[in-house]
Amino acid sequence: MDRLPRWADVALVPLVSLALAAIVSALVILAIGQDPVEAITVMVQGSILDARGWGYTLYYTTSFIFTGLAVTVAFHASMFNIGGEGQAQLGGLGVALACLFIPWPHWSLALIGASLGAALFGAVWAAIPAYLQAKRGSHIVITTMMFNYIAFSLLSYLLVDVLRPPGKSDPTTAFFPEATKIPALSDVPGLNLIFTKAVPANITLFVALFMAWVVWALLWRTRLGYQIRAFGKSEPAARYAGINPTKIILLSMILSGGLAGLMSINNVMGEAERLLANSASGAGFIGIAVALMGRNHPVGVVLAAFLFGFLFQGGAELGLWTKIPIEMRIVVQGLVILFTGALDMMVRMMLIRLFALTRRTEAA
Amino acid sequence: MAASAENLGRQATAAPFAIELKGISKAFGPVQANKDINIAVPKGTIHGIIGENGAGKSTLMSILYGFYKADAGQIIVGGKPTSIPDSQSAIRAGIGMVFQHFKLVQNFTVLENIILGAEDGPMLNASLAKARKVLKSLADEYELDVDPDALIEDLSVGHQQRVEILKALYRQADILILDEPTGVLTPAEADHLFRILKGLRDQGKTIILITHKLREIMETTDNVSVMRRGTMVGTVKTAETSPVQLAELMVGRKVLLEVEKAEATPGKVVLKVEDLRVRDEHGVERLKGISFDIRAGEILGIAGVAGNGQTELLEVLGGMISAQGKVTLKEAPLPLSGAGSDGQSRREAGISHVPEDRHHHGLILDFSAWENVAFGYFNDPKYQKSALFMDNDALRADTAKKMQTFDVRPPIPTLAAKSFSGGNQQKIVVAREFEQDPDLLLVGQPTRGVDIGAIEFIHKQLIRLRDEGKAVLLVSVELDEILSLSDRIAVMFDGQITGFRDPKSTNERELGLLMAGITDTKGAA
Lengths: 364, 525
Fold this sequence. Notes:
CATH class of the domain at 269-361 and 437-515 in chain B: Alpha Beta
Number of helices of chain A: 15
Order of helices and strands of chain A: HHHHHHHHHHHHHHH
Distance between the termini of chain A: 21 Å
Oligomer: heterodimer
Strand content of chain A: under 5%
Distance between the termini of chain B: 44 Å
Radius of gyration of chain B: 25 Å
Strand order of the largest sheet of chain B: 6-7-8-3-9-10
CATH class of the largest domain in chain A: Mainly Alpha
CATH architecture of the domain at 269-361 and 437-515 in chain B: 3-Layer(aba) Sandwich
Number of domains of chain A: 2
CATH topology of the largest domain in chain A: ABC transporter involved in vitamin B12 uptake, BtuC
Shape of chain B: globular
CATH topology of the domain at 269-361 and 437-515 in chain B: Rossmann fold
Largest sheet of chain B: 6 strands, mixed
CATH superfamily of the domain at 269-361 and 437-515 in chain B: P-loop containing nucleotide triphosphate hydrolases
Number of strands of chain A: 0
Radius of gyration of chain A: 22 Å
Largest sheet of chain A: none
Largest interface: A-B, 18 and 30 residues
Strand content of chain B: 15-25%
Shape of chain A: globular
Structural class of chain B: alpha/beta
Number of helices of chain B: 18
């Protein structure tokens, strides 16, 4: 089989896939009687053409980096963790407990404490399905999916019956103390020249980028990462090499759950400043698409997270300023996933043939 | 019979060659896999193609079967220039292929597999009935009997291969290409296969047999073409050549088919195995109380038909499965289950293990060569940069060195393991395991699917390790290999050792009886 040059493999294939997704999205918008040119204009203007748009786009991007990395780490151990949503909600609980019940003197300490809480709660929530997979053979896809529902119900119970402040009717926790408020990008010296008004994007973005580096170093530079990747490629070979399957399944899922949980410092601590029901609002699922599109590499995940951040914010703008319903963003996301994930081979084969053709004409 | 002979004669005048390749070239990037290949296969003959792994045999056959498109050259089938852009065209041109790794649907019956892709219409019953009839006549004609209603997963490897041949014949193939057909067969199954092939030839079919086993070439083929590094170095009549001449043509230099070794000087007992028992997950006893020992500087060869417990023996000693019994290594007990019985503990105890199946166990095919050199040894201090990070640069340098010592080609540490030929993959495994300075070396099928040049090299290295005072446990289904390398031979049958023999005073016949479970071999020796 002929192969594509590396640049085409990593850059051209996803770009072509995206272009196809965009074309089909445009056709769908046409079909509901709206103007695709107007739609794309509104999307771009509302998400990356001014500081406010960037503030939202980067906010979503931050969440998606965490959940995308979570799927990536587990995927390399050939564990398909689709429980990011539940793990992120549990992470939110960890953040809320840390912020509400520990008197932090400064936001930086609160950030460390809340991060630990978020990662711990997310990790525990992933560790249970991992244990069931390693010891009982219960399939991780089924159990992590079920744990999403359990997480949702657990959070509903806690928010309604336990954590809801007396006298309030909303199923949410109280607002966190002022000392736990982490700086938004508009509060960061230097960046506040760009973000002149308050934006939801906050310094968690830098934590996310740092974690992307950590995941890269873990997977490709450490013994544990080596064992995770080896186990993920071939379980019988891992047994030959003396890699302990239980250990790898547990550790990779704990890391994965921890990363998913960490997203809560972005939305719960950085933005809402209290824990709401359904706090992850779908980011856990989008993480699957982000990892898929990012080819399970941290760099790819960061880029894909940005793309989905753009789609998320742009889609919200569509709902706000046009007659196109906000649900259109789900359609667009679906098409992006379809073309970059499921139909990836189709685009690849097309390009391979194209490249072979040009090579032949050059040779002739 | 007379009619078919007449038919054959008529065709012979029209098209003396079943297939002709003229000037075929194919390059993969910088690698020239086939260079100006010319070959003509006369109709109604068995034509052998031999060459080392990586010589370009498989590429050539893939071109013939439409998997690859040649950069240059011409394919002439039955006298007509033919273009073969895909396998459907190959089938239409009357070419059938039996791959080394079968392409069968495991949970389909034989009949369903046969008609798969060759159904006559959307409803299957008519096709199935027709296939049943055709199958019956083929079975009678060529000794190709298989139960048409058996599921593939219930068939032995030999029978699965027959299904592949039947599939090709059902599609009316006149030219049958077999790629390393005996790699997975027992000697008896291989003999049966060759009888089938000769029967097919006598009926006018043309057979192309790709192999690197010289004995098969000498026993079955009419003509043989030799490939080396992408070129065709010659085509000779089998009757007019010898194994030694063919081996030299293949490798391009003189080859020692016999292993040269000095008398062994066994030292202290290194490994002592007593009453070793293994049950598989279905509760079937795979090892039924095995006892033996191996001394330093000695090779103990385990002979036996595949599946009689040799695999389990290697896997227990290598820390892959648990067992009951007593095993001591240099007088220290080896745990056989629970903590300390995993592959890491075994390596730390001084056991190296060349596994039987390099694709499933010995290598991670998607990993690069240097990552594979750390496989099993990722905890080795010399590969660590700090407490946290591995030293990938040191690992790559070490890999480059090992590749040079063991003549791995191409010597590129960053190349993925799957991109190497079988022989070079095995050399990567062997280099990794032999260079660990072990006390005990476990070696399973060291030369399976490996070419002659590499076999010679691996055998020399094994003898070198023995002479350095290592204890070696060698498991092989190749009797020649067991006989020429071992200092003592143990024969396994049905999870037990049926006898120990001295290679100098035994023969293949005696070992064959022991392998079949017949322990009274006095009359045979």
